[in-house]
Write a structure and sequence with these properties.
The protein is of the alpha/beta class. The protein has eleven helices and 15 strands. It has a five-stranded mixed beta sheet with strand order 5-4-3-6-10. It has a five-stranded mixed beta sheet with strand order 13-12-11-14-15, sandwiched between helices. A hairpin with a 3-residue loop joins β3 and β4.
């Protein structure tokens, strides 16, 4: 009887999310309806090993408690057959050509690392409306001299619809059906999933098959990750038991708001960030719905925040502790900067 009460209490935030989510129109809400089945019902675990890339061109990885490195990406069985994508759990050696790609909304960013060298300056390509990302990738590989030839490995950050599933409840055989039921319109896309080891969650996301085809022609091994994964890994670790943090990551015209407690996600959702008043409402509503205290807990703003001063000033009217993380010195998107382990502010 007591266990049933604990489970109900642990999932109460889901009912709150579902209640206030129906009032939002300008952001993606489809994942919320399925969130209650896949989030927040498992007991939290204590302790984790931090994730830290050992060099700038290392493929993003996690470390188990026994010290053995494992890949955070595990493609579905169906995807393996479709793209023949292979990934080694070991990090690439210094003799390999490594490519890092970020596919965002309207932009492509490439960072190439030659054997024994530091990463080259980033190449940014603006994408035209009405032209697919795969077409822009093909053109970039043909026109950019630094991208010529075949790379030994590639790490690809993709801005794509993403859902989170507790690690202990995830079943690879159900991944395709689960994602298609949550996000419509992606039935023809390949489904990938990446593990967030210390947060005990699996990020399930979709990638266009044409994009994977183009990249597989220019890299022998490809690792695909959602753009938020490096941010979740870095800022999701919060050891304080007296203060909660609500984090908002601004990127690609939207904001990903998330909160973690006990090394697990308590809340995570994406909203449109085209209007500052809406963004302010989304942050304050999530802050209130999670039962946070304005005098104790804090809001952290990450990434390229539009109208940053206005949003921060208005947040301070309701929340005492507001933290605005400065952008990386590299001027790259925060997620790509964290992935490449470039100097952080």
């Amino acid at each position: 009887m007591q266990e049933g009460k604990k489970a109900a209490k642990g999932c109460c935030f889901i009912r709150k999310i579902t209640t206030f989510a129906v009032f939002f129109r300008d952001f993606e809400i489809r994942g919320v309806r399925r969130l209650s089945r896949h989030m927040g019902c498992a007991h939290c675990e204590d302790g984790f090993l931090p994730v830290s890339p050992s060099r700038s061109h290392m493929i993003w990885r996690s470390v188990h408690r026994d010290g053995n490195p494992v890949s955070t990406l595990t493609p579905t069985t169906k995807q393996k057959k479709e793209s023949d994508m292979q990934h080694s759990p070991n990090s690439p050696s210094s003799t390999e050509r490594v490519l890092e790609v970020r596919i965002g909304r309207g932009t492509l960013v490439f960072i190439a690392t030659e054997p024994g060298d530091r990463p080259t300056p980033a190449i940014q390509v603006e994408m035209k409306d009405g032209v697919s990302a795969s077409a822009h990738l093909r053109k970039a590989f043909k026109s950019q001299k630094m991208l010529s030839g075949v790379f030994d490995s590639a790490v690809v950050l993709v801005d794509a619809p993403t859902m989170l599933v507790p690690k202990e409840e995830f079943k690879e055989s159900d991944a395709d059906q689960l994602f298609n039921h949550t996000f419509t319109g992606h039935e023809r896309d390949a489904k990938c999933h990446a593990a967030l080891e210390h947060l005990h969650a699996i990020a399930l996301f979709a990638i266009e098959k044409d994009i994977m085809t183009v990249l597989s022609d220019h890299a022998r091994r490809c690792t695909y990750l959602p753009v938020c994964l490096p941010v979740w890994e870095r800022y999701g670790r919060h050891s304080s038991v007296t203060r909660q943090r609500l984090l908002g990551y601004f990127h690609d015209g939207k904001i990903d708001i998330f909160c973690t407690v006990g090394n697990r996600f308590k809340f995570c959702n994406a909203f449109s960030a085209t209007h500052s008043h809406d963004t302010l409402y989304f942050l304050l509503n999530a802050f209130t719905q999670q039962g946070m205290k304005s005098s104790r807990d804090e809001v952290v703003l990450l990434g390229s925040v539009p109208h940053q001063q206005w949003i921060a000033d208005h947040l301070k009217k309701y929340v005492e502790r507001i933290v605005v993380e400065p952008l990386p010195d590299s001027k790259l998107p925060l997620d790509l900067s964290l992935l490449t382990n470039l100097p952080q502010p």
